[in-house]
Amino acid sequence: MTVQGSCDPAFAGVREVFEQNFAEGRELGAAVAVYAGDRKVVDLWGGVADRRTGREWRADTPCFGFSCTKAVTAAAALLLAERGAYEVDGPVTDWWPEFGTAGKEGATAAHLLSHQSGLPAFARPVSAEEAADAPARAAELAVQEPEWTPGEAHGYHALTYGWLAGEIVRRLSGRTVGEFAKNEFARDLDLWIGSPDEVIERAARMSAGRRVSGGGGADAPRPAGDAALLDRLAAAYTDPGSRMNRALNNPHPGKGGYNNPVVLRAGWPAAGMLATAPAFAGFYRDLVAGRVLRPDTLREGMRTRVSGPDRTMLIDSAFGLGFMRPAQTFFVPAAGRDSAFGHTGAGGSIGLGDPDAGLAVAYLPNLMGDHLSGDLRAYRLVEAAYAALS
Length: 390
Fold this sequence. Notes:
The protein is α+β, with helices and mostly antiparallel strands. It has a single domain (3-389), classed as DD-peptidase/beta-lactamase superfamily (Beta-lactamase). The protein is built from 14 helices and 12 strands. The chain is globular. The chain starts with a strand and ends with a helix. 59% of the residues are buried.
């Protein structure tokens, strides 16, 4: 498979890893981009954007980013806090009175942003068509009883995060997350949360990879505890009644999965982004450079608010205000463990920024991995980028 694009000689290791992923059959189509400061040092793509038609991946092919979307939603919410629209550690009821029911009276905006609100899943099945109505889904969560008291624990809010953290943006700006992000800091980026049809038509089409095999798959860094824990993870993932399954699979995207135009047009704020790799890396470049948020706002957003056992994912996770921090759910090389932030996506994608290193990385594949807690394709690319800096 021919890899196209450009790569600074100092970052040749990233190209080698990217090409190796194709050579080993780990990719269908993919793109990776890296910024060192404001300098784009890697912009590579290759493979097939649509397995059905054989359409090739091009320089301007956008790809679905799954939960990588959450970092964009978090940045939008933090920008409003920076402007004084609300207090991060203040009560949600200050700006969303209806939320203060069923034991959620003490919830703060920080709880919504850091997966502590106790609402990791909807209490009933929700369709893709229903999920397109953001105000209605937020209203539904506002009256739902939490699965734990907000603030007493954390558990990954895989999809509900979008209608919780996203409600900060909708209520306090009058715009959807996608509209706010596009107008405020993504105007010049090929990045959308809620995509027009012409973008959907040229987007890469997601394809299923191997079946899920537990916490990370055979080629991912293993969670501590190994066999017994992997069995627990695999069982939870496939058990319709488990919190993990309910959180990851409801709302269901419907026919075509995450290729469904209903989902892509709606732009779920937790998992609805289409972007090119250079644009997504450009988002992190601008975050790191202080062009989206002030440096002190970003540092506060990065500051680890929760870490340890995740009540949804059953392994250790760590979150700031919407951003993942290094943990079993966000594998980062040793060089970035103190200063890296970002978010992974279920299909194997990743977005990462590091203010100390001046690094921004984005990787977007369309062959979905089978990994619950990491994807070695992304890890190897990030590792190579850090190695190039040193």
